[in-house]
Request: fold
Amino acid sequence: MTTVIDIDARGTQHCETTALGVLLRHEGLDLSEPMLFGLGSGLSFIYWDSKNMGFPFLGGRVKPFDLTRNLATRLGLELLVQETTSPRRAWENVAGPIDAGHPVGLQLDSYHLDYFGSKVHFGGHVVAMYGYDEHDAYLVDTDQQGRAVSTSLTSLAQARAARGPMTAKHRSFTLTAPRNPPSAQGQIIPAITACADAFLNSPIANLGHRGIDKAGKLVRTWLQRTGNPQRDLPQAALLMEKAGTGGALFRNLYRDFLAECTQLLGSSHLRTGHGLYTEAATLWTEAAALITKAGESGDARYLVQAGTIFCDLSRIERAAMQALSCLGSETPSVIRP
Reply:
């Protein structure tokens, strides 16, 4: 027996927004990926390092699933989240909604998925599931992973049961839109100001603009931080540019979100923020290229240059978020098409 829902399997760049797009389009809400990311207040920064890590990690977004929760709140969506330690119950939590005609979001470890190109453990990966048969599950993943894909039911069970950093206990979720959802345009300012507040007022120095400044100092030591710079530094740069970030450590997505907002709302603060994030996105890509060169050549001068760019980015993004935080104290004009 095969159960497959008719869905729009449009792939995009980032896993969580890809899955959210599938679920929301099924509910009749079609928003761009940058708009989903921005309304979910998805942008952030973390410099993550610890004794049990092989190499530091640079993160450019909020914690896995926070984006989904934020978006559901903004758009008045009913978010039903289920978690369990039972593999049997976990399957029932997925099969039930699909049998009833509703696609389901899953958080899992991408390492176990048959189609996944890069075999790296990542427990915060999110996909949309829209069907299954006796052997395989049918999923929607990002553009780079193939959009509409399939994986064996065995591999899916392993991916959902995995434990480790960022994993969840067989987490699945559905979204239901209300009869009269709030206007997405009306939620732009609250989403932006909430993101700006978190970025500017991070509780620890590893987060937000302070985290970027810290990374600028520590990246200069990365050749001494690893015994295999030819592997670890290019891998870190690859994660910044290619690992579902949309490029520039999610800054391309936020730049495009702000650009879309400037077409809807007239605000000098919004235009300032967009201009600064356009500059920041270019610099993030330049920094990633320098980190790659440092790993390939062993030349620390590239890391010094990257560190200088990070310090510039801390200043630029702080100024951008300060401008965007002022949106809450003004009444931007609505731009009519």
Summary: The first strand starts at residue 3 and ends at 4. The chain is about 45% helix and 15% strand. The chain has a mean pLDDT of 94.
